[in-house]
């Protein structure tokens, strides 16, 4: 399913980027019909961190995220990184003790709060104490009223953000009045970005892939996550109790299975199981090919002086088709996985020893014999060795897939 986010830049008085407001969109049509603000607020907050990269969306500046009365009170916002976002409170605002307490808690947690579409009302006085930035719609507010608001709010230590700035003249006058930030079509219209969503079960598999490939694997946390995804838990226990491991007694717990495997083998086998889960709606051959690539890279490793990195090369080959399995560009997928940098570089086509191994496997897979001969010679590998590795890898991939 396609998801959409629009972003519109916000500038400081010197026209440097201060941040981006992230806006909910239903499609590439650059507007929002306003039918369900609560749903739009929840979607924009979730998608900004779970589907899109917040750093990518804002060029590592600040993200203005819209929040309704309900989303402020449900506590979900408190899980966001307070230094990366500014919470923009949408109108209509209905001040009440519960909302005021929610805003005070956000302030205590280090969040910066902005108030959208400000029009003065004495009922807002107590609430305004929690707000840092006031947004004023200058298209529908006279310059005289803007001056009055500036006189009142700047004295209280508030920052003013002018919204719907559409001319150079308006920008210059507001800057003279004392406005700090500016947003509007004069600078830039919202730009819509889209991305394919990952189904809920695939998100769980991606979470497992991230945890198992972290620089330091937390076994307790990983075991808990695997136990939440029954298909992975079942397959891992089935694998560890198979004839391949020839254990003297059965293993019945996920934690016990992870402890038995050891960190390097955990990365290999849990990644394999999670990947097959991700690809459950894809053709079998796509998965088998990924497994075969991983096994080929692993078997080549000792022949090219990389024996100690055989498990890493297995993951490189295994993940080489991840973009096709998730329907997202490989660069985006790799940003979500804490792989070694040289493996990421190899998967993105950058030169290096790991990439040369992957190119060798790809050349054999596609029957590019001249390329194969050239790379094999540079690595001092016999072509008959490669042929044996290729056959063994295909057989292993099919057996492993069928065992799943």
Detailed description of the structure:
The protein is an alpha/beta fold and 404 residues long. The protein has 2 domains: 2-196, TIM Barrel (Alpha-Beta Barrel); 200-403, Orthogonal Bundle (Hypothetical protein af1432), CATH 1.10.3210.10. The chain is 52% helix and 13% strand. The protein contains 20 helices and 9 strands. The chain has helices at residues 37-50, 54-58, 69-73, 97-108, 125-128, 143-154, 168-177, 200-212, 219-228, 230-240, 254-261, 263-278, 284-300, 310-318, 322-326, 330-335, 341-347, 353-366, 369-379, 383-403, and strands at residues 2-12, 17-25, 62-67, 85-89, 112-115, 133-137, 159-163, 181-182, 191-196. Strands 1-2-3-4-5-6-7-8 form an 8-stranded mixed β-barrel. Strand 5, helix 5 and strand 6 (133-137) form a beta-alpha-beta unit. Helix 8 (200-212) packs antiparallel against helix 12 (263-278), helix 10 (230-240) packs across helix 12 (263-278) and helix 17 (341-347) packs parallel to helix 18 (353-366). The protein is elongated, with a radius of gyration of 27 Å. It starts with a strand and ends with a helix.
What is this structure's SSE topology?
Elements: E1 2-12, E2 17-25, H1 37-50, H2 54-58, E3 62-67, H3 69-73, E4 85-89, H4 97-108, E5 112-115, H5 125-128, E6 133-137, H6 143-154, E7 159-163, H7 168-177, E8 181-182, E9 191-196, H8 200-212, H9 219-228, H10 230-240, H11 254-261, H12 263-278, H13 284-300, H14 310-318, H15 322-326, H16 330-335, H17 341-347, H18 353-366, H19 369-379, H20 383-403
Parallel strand pairs: 2-3, 3-4, 4-5, 5-6, 6-7, 7-8
Antiparallel strand pairs: 1-2, 1-8, 1-9
